[in-house]
Amino acid sequence: MLLSVIVPVYNEVNTILCTLEQVGKVSIEKEIIIVDDCSTDGTKELLQKKFGSGGESLKLAYHTENKGKGAAIQTALLYAKGDYSIFQDADLEYDPQDYTKLMEVAQKHKLDVVFGSRFLKTWCVTSFWHFLVNRFLTGITNLLYGSRLTDMETCYKMIKTKLLKELGLKSQRFNIEPEITVKLLKKGYNIKEVPILYKGRLYTEGKKITWKDGFSAMWSLLRYRVTE
């Protein structure tokens, strides 16, 4: 079972190599697809120096302008060949060893979709304010779409690649997360959640998501309720 690990990266020169090292240690058949979203801190040059043009199991793509996480994911999907795909942020907040746990659940229950939840067992993995925002957005998702999720905004969404490509994704930035979630729910897919490890970083450490992305996510949740 081949897993496509999609790594959108923007200005993560201090963490990208360590992230890829951790991904490489996971004992699962995988391909890694890195999309540099026009980094300006040396990330692009570091990747080119370290990996050149890539290879069969590691593919590299570069945006010539900064477009956002959603756009990077859409670019990566053009190359993805795995049975399942999963997203991996390049900031070391998530633990790639959890891939195995998600894949085991997906295969055991023959699921098309498995989400890794940071809050299924506890909220003490990030700041209280980030927890409140996530809880609010997840609650709105459950209210509007009849789901029972605990972490709509999770990065670890493991989805069959064929299905992911069929969703017709359009969001360019962090609102890719609610778009994927609600489109799956509207298609009737049962989203199984599995607890995962998470260590949220601070803005002083390079965290990029802001309050503006929270409003964008809210608007996406409302908009997709009556469109598509």
Summarize the structure in words.
The longest helix has 18 residues, at 128-145. Strands 3-2-1-4-6-5-7 form a 7-stranded mixed β-sheet, with helices on both faces. By secondary structure, it is of the alpha/beta class. α5 runs parallel beside α8 (211-226) and α7 (176-186) runs parallel beside α8. 39% of the residues lie in helices and 16% in strands.
Strand content: 15-25%
Give the helices and strands as they follow along the chain: EHEHEHEHEHEHHEH
For the termini, the CA-CA separation is 31 Å
Choose one word for the global shape. globular
Helical amount = 25-40%
CATH topology-level fold name: Spore Coat Polysaccharide Biosynthesis Protein SpsA, Chain A
Q: What's the mean pLDDT score?
A: 89
Question: What is the name of the CATH architecture?
Answer: Alpha-Beta Complex
Low-confidence stretches: 201-208
Cα radius of gyration in angstroms: 16 Å
Q: What count of helical segments does DSSP give? A: 8
SSE-based structural type: alpha/beta
Record the strand order, biggest sheet. 3-2-1-4-6-5-7
Please write the CATH class name: Alpha Beta
